[in-house]
Amino acid sequence: MTLVGELSEAGLRRGTPLALVLAPGHGFALAWTGGTRSIATDEPVQAIAEIGALDPRWTWWSARQTATPLVAAGVQLRSCWDLGAVGRLAHGLRRDDPAAVWAASGSLPEPPPVRPALDLLDLAGEHGEPVRRDGQLSRDWLHGRATESLPAAVEWAGLALRTQQAQERLLRTLTDPRPLPRQPPLAVLTAFAESAAALLCVELEQHGLPLDRAAATALLTAMIGSRPADAADEVSRRVQRDGRVFAAFPGPPVDLRNPAQVRVLLARVGLDLPDTRSWRLEPHAGTSPGVTELLAWRKAERIATTYGWDWLDRNVGADGRLRGAWGSADAAAGRMTAQAGLHNLPGDLRGAVLAEPGQMLVRADLGQVEPRVLAAVSGDPGLARAAREDDMYAPVAASLGCDRPTAKVAVLAAMYGQTSGTAGAALRDLDRAYPTAMAYLRSAEESGRTGQDLRTYGGRLIRLSRAPEGETESPGHGRYARNAVVQGAAAELFKAWAGTVRAELPALHGEIVLCLHDELLVQVPKAAAAEAVALLDSALQQTARWWAAGSPVRFVAEVGVGASWLTAH
Questions:
Q1: Number of structural domains found in the chain
Q2: What are phi and psi of 212, to 5 degrees?
Q3: Could you tell me if 528 and 507 are in contact, meaning their C-beta atoms sit under 8 angstroms apart?
Q4: Whole-structure pTM over 0.90, yes or no?
């Protein structure tokens, strides 16, 4: 009997959690409810791909650790449960390593991170087992012993399965805000989506974003000049860029990279501004040649220093793919993150993101997603009716008795906690027109002010009782919490949508090549472009039916097709 047949006989079915641990040089280990199995092989990829025909829910400590070599080898992995990603969701963890995830699932104190090299203090109290007497995972096992042999890998897979079961039990105890008792609870579905996003991050990191080097070279040359001959040439060009600004202002040069000195420069032409942000300068560009030159300098300087020739050489491979590290959830509201400029690529360079031969790029952007999410998660009937329209700000403006721009500012201000100026006046009208939504936001704000933890609509724990390290604004602040419940839920919806698209794209021989906040960019064969457009919309409606079940809110996506990212708008 084949391995797949044996596992099927042992009760492995579609959607069954199947813990997987790779033991390089030895094989791999599996654990599922009712059984374990180790497979000795030097080539695990083929065997794992065959097991995938049973469509289990692959369960691993981390997609980055376990899925990366499989994705690199071309294995298509469908559904999964990522213990690290779900640990962030269920327990509000800032770390996703096995030690922290295991401790949280067992209500143990968070252990210190495992150091690169163990010493005698680390090994004190260890007794050779994967779980120490205090309930924490063994530092020795965390440091590599877990994958040094197949018997150890089997034990490690068993612990992964126990952790998955503990996480799922917790998520099933959370209140489901939707009237769908016959479906898995929303928090469990969110765990599926967060896990899919973690796997998608591995795929995005491995496959990269198609970027045409010749097109990028032409664009960079037009913006910042040809590639410098050497370091001295690069310094000379920097001096020339600075000189064009100094020529438009009286007086001696200043350090243009120092905002305080730039304010001094602006004062020479009668502009006394509180800061030098671009939006503050732009209104003066029409009347001040110096400001025009300064804004042009900033654009060129950003390209030259962040997206210039060094960036192109470091991050774009010989295959014409731009690659950077990806994360499935940031520290605040759960948004996906990316490095190497993938989330901040200047608009002028998007023309270099070209579909590969025989392919097209299809871009879809969720329209007005955060106010629509607010309407759904708060259950406000008036705001939900407004969210039935293509442009929900138009009916909001009618309800508030103001113009559309003011209505948009008011709704965004409500979600971001702004209370002064025009927004402050409009907020009073929002209280009258949409009391349920405003009460929802105020409740979150009160949790922030009083330091009470809360959960997003999809079940993500937002820890407000302690300030996360590295936050510039304490999450104990009300404005943080007010926005986090909306932005966090929007991130969960986006990842659920992206996961649905990811599952369906292989039928079109397509792939997701970029996730940018509320935007998906996919590449498909030219003949499948129309089908991809339909898929992006149908996947959104399919996701919304279970994510916002019982709500009349309508979610919309603006979809475009083009040979480049720039033209797919």
A1: 4
A2: -75, 115
A3: no
A4: yes
